[in-house]
Write a structure and sequence with these properties.
80 residues; 19% strand
């Protein structure tokens, strides 16, 4: 349930979210999203060093609703 919520919110923010059966989401966003979130004290997994992937590919864990909301708020903040 929480994975669907988080995926939907990322999609609303213009991110490409890939289907997942695991407790994390893989998505494509802005190439500098990792650096911007890091400045806000939030670390997401930059997947650009995975074979075949590029800058702007990320992975995040699906957590409790309040934690997912905090992450989404930080993403919204750095994208303003």
């Amino acid at each position: 349930e929480e994975a669907e919520y988080l995926s939907g919110e990322l999609y609303k923010l213009g991110m490409t979210v890939f289907p997942s059966q695991a407790n994390y989401l893989f998505f494509e966003g802005e190439p500098d999203l990792y650096e911007k979130l890091l400045q806000e004290g939030v670390m997401i997994r930059d997947c650009s060093n995975y074979p075949g992937l590029w800058k702007g590919c990320y992975r995040i864990a699906v957590k409790l609703h309040t934690e997912n909301e905090q992450l989404l708020e930080k993403i919204r903040k750095v994208r303003r």
